[in-house]
Amino acid sequence: MDFESPDVMKDFPGLYASDVHKAKSNDIEYGEDAEKVTKKDILIGKRKEKKDKKDKERGYAALEGESSAEESYEVSPSKSKKSKSFKFPTKSKEKREKSRDKEKEVTEKKKDKDKRVDKKIEKDKCKVEKKEKKVKSEDWCDIAEVLPIFGVNLKLAIEHGRCHDGIDLPVPVRACIDYVEDYGLTFENVYKISAPKSKVIHIKKLYNQREHVNLVDYDVPTATSLLKMFLRDLPEPVFTSELLIRFEEAGAILNVALREKHLKILVGNLPQHNRLLLSWIITHFYNVTLNEKYNKMNAQNLALCMSSTLQTSHRLLTALLCHCPALFPDTVLERYIYPLTSSSQLPDDPELMEQELQKQESLLTQIHSEMNVGFISKQREELLWEVQRIITQLKRKLKTANKDREQLFEKIDEQQNEEIVENTQITQPSPTASYEPETTPVQISENVEETKSVENVTASETIIVPETNVSDSPNLAVLHKQVIKEAEPEEVEFVESESREFKNALEILQIRNGFLSELRDSFIKQIEEDRAEIAVLKNQLTQRDWTPVYGDANCASLDEIMDLLQKENQILQIKKINLVRQIMEQQEACIDLKTKIDAYSKHNLFA
Amino acid sequence: MSKKPVTQPALHKVIMVGSGGVGKSALTLQFMYDEFVEDYEPTKADSYRKKILLDGEEVQIDILDTAGQEDYAAIRDNYFRSGEGFLCIFSITEDESFQATQDFREQILRVKNDENIPFLLVGNKCDLEERRKVSYQEASDRAKQWGVTYVETSAKTREHVDKVFFDLMREIRARKMEENKTNNGRGKDKNKRKKLKCVIL
Ligand SMILES: Nc1nc2c(ncn2[C@@H]2O[C@H](COP(=O)(O)OP(=O)(O)O)[C@@H](O)[C@H]2O)c(=O)[nH]1
Ligand SMILES: [Mg+2]
């Protein structure tokens, strides 16, 4: 670790190649997406013509590099196809020409340099030529084509348009939500009014090309249309093709509580990225509907606007909006703050510095990976050095702040110790206490938690203390009830001695245990019965000769019927699972109630 | 698009290369902040900027202090590609680090594809004369073979620290002026445009 070996290439010859490879695998993934769009346009003849033209325009040096690259693509037929689809996508003519210009410039420069190259290093050049060529073929790529943010699957979109604050959503999504949350919540008919398509496409391009976009320069309809475009461009619905039917099913459940429960389960089943995106979109839309008074968009209206974009029914969307607080209770639409640039002031707070450092390092990784697929320009190199410089500055600043921070921590530790001592004093019932009554419960409840976690003995003390004090303050009485509720879901009399408490809990558990084993026994019995039935049915099946019922019907109608039946079966299956779940839940509720009843009756006997 | 104002001082980009522990960071920090750190902390990559007077002209220097080896060769190439001049450092107390300079030179030439790239061979830790393993002759022979200058430095005593940075910047500046001349001729640009037009026709 200390003494780094300099000749990486010798030691790990695969390392370099694997990087190039990695870049290619990205291309391929995109290639698949691009194929959809370009298949029509790229006829083989057309493609060849373009290629010839391109080759002619190039200097010989580039031609050499290019041809070798083509050869390597031709090795596998599937690969070459894909690489072509990414090389000649539907680009505007003007842009194509621009990139050609660029390439020409490079070749020109390289030629110049070649002249100066001495014979002495000719050998060295030969040694590395192969690798050099690989890099060349990918130099000066159009990042919008190789690593686009729009129109690729969600995982790639997040990777390509990474937010560096650790929240894995694509940058345009964050930007749109931030903007609409700031300026659009009171905008009449927000999400209903859309912006001119050309404008939205322009911004999409800017994002794909990693140009800086500031949505503040535009308006609310542009932001909403951009978000819609991102969602519409996703190859797969946010709900995933797999779960979409089940979401629709759940959204159609009439019983509100049940619907919520099922939607919750389904949300939990979503892949992490999809869940996050859905939680943000729905929470954001929910915020929009909260401002219905101003924007005239209630859940119904908004759902109508967005259902086609999200490839769902508007019923499901309305349901999600209604259940939003329950489905996504922890979602906070945190504003995305871009990594700092060198013109801005670095933070002074060590914690903020640490955060910023993480952001900058994430950005640096991104820049490197984009460079490795050939997104190289003067500006990009400037950015690379700038980010590196900010990281260095932050590290230095952190280092010097470290000593101060250590001292600070020591101080805080001392203060905390003092506070704990003070707090325990506060909880002692003292009629002469000088604090205000409103603040009392808060302080005490905090204190209960604190001391509870520190030491059990003190916890029981603090709980009991207010009990003796109930008559003194109504606030404390309320608090007392709360404490008991939290500590003991059963409304059993609170027992002072610890052993009594344990006995109580033990009793309840024993009762519960009894009911549960009863339930288990009944299940086992049922399973045995079902098994027996399966055996019987199997027997019948083997004895009978299987003759198709629709032997005479034609194949098409048979297929249709099959399809229909399969779909029906699917739905029935879902319904069945739902019902089974319901039964289980109700059985559990029954046991809970029975346990309570038993516990009560026992205590009444004792009393 | 956003062209920098003309008043912006020239910016020269320098990259420190060499094995781990030879004193790349120590030289950089000595040059930047006049400080010397005794304890060794492996670098990942650090970048610094400083305004200085180079022969009466105000310029900016960007210094990239690298690790002896990046985690990935491709990452290292991203840096090397953007460097305009290189300080290739070894420790005169460690022969291995001197041998390694050969590899660094090759890597740089491969990425820059330019044998005249501004480049200095630097033998650091010359304050540790009693522990010298690489003779002055041996090192300057290699420098001559490469067609570059050899300088011995000490990040500890600050000997020749400014010199290596300033000498390298002068080389970079001269190089840029040369490039400007050829570019200002604009002959090539015109040719290029004509060629393009022909193709379009
Ligand atoms: N005596 C002496 N020690 C040095 C000199 N330069 C660096 N060092 C020490 O060598 C070690 C490695 O230095 P460092 O700059 O971190 O090496 P790097 O890995 O090339 O960046 C540190 O302990 C430095 O204090 C020097 O010129 N003289
Ligand atoms: Mg270092």
TrEMBL record, chain A:
Q: Please name the GO terms that the record assigns under molecular function.
A: beta-tubulin binding; GTPase activator activity; small GTPase binding
**SUPFAM superfamilies assigned to the protein according to its UniProt record, in alphabetical order:** GTPase activation domain, GAP, Tubulin chaperone cofactor A
Enumerate the residue ranges of region (Disordered): 41-114
Superkingdom, natural source:
Eukaryota
GO BP annotations, alphabetical order? post-chaperonin tubulin folding pathway; small GTPase-mediated signal transduction; tubulin complex assembly
Q: Which residues form the Rho-GAP domain?
A: 152-364
Question: Which parts of the chain are coiled coil?
Answer: 384-418, 492-582
Please note every region of biased composition (Basic and acidic residues): 41-59, 91-114
Q: Which UniProt keywords apply?
A: Coiled coil, GTPase activation
Q: What would be one Pfam family of this protein?
A: RhoGAP
Q: Which InterPro entries match?
A: RALBP1, RalBP1-like_Ral-bd, Rho_GTPase_activation_prot, RhoGAP_dom, TBCA_sf
Instruction: List the Gene3D superfamilies.
Output: 1.20.58.90, Rho GTPase activation protein (1.10.555.10)
The UniProt entry, under PANTHER family, shows:
RALA BINDING PROTEIN 1 RALBP1 (PTHR12783), RALA-BINDING PROTEIN 1 (PTHR12783:SF5)
Q: What is this protein called?
A: Rho-GAP domain-containing protein
Please give the organism: Aquatica leii
Organism lineage reads as: Eukaryota, Metazoa, Ecdysozoa, Arthropoda, Hexapoda
Automatic annotation (TrEMBL), chain B:
The record's EC number reads: 3.6.5.2
InterPro entries (UniProt xref):
P-loop_NTPase, Small_GTP-bd, Small_GTPase, Small_GTPase_Ras-type
Q: Does the keyword Nucleus apply?
A: no
Which Gene Ontology molecular function entries are recorded, alphabetically?
G protein activity; GTP binding
On whether GTP-binding is a keyword of this UniProt record, the answer is yes
Report the GO terms under cellular component. Answer: plasma membrane
Q: Principal place where this protein is found?
A: membrane
**SMART domains membership:** RAB, RAN, RAS, RHO
Q: Name the NCBIfam families on file.
A: small_GTP
UniProt family annotation: Belongs to the small GTPase superfamily. Ras family.
> Which PANTHER family does the protein's record reference?
RAS, DI-RAS, AND RHEB FAMILY MEMBERS OF SMALL GTPASE SUPERFAMILY
Tell me what this protein is called. Answer: small monomeric GTPase
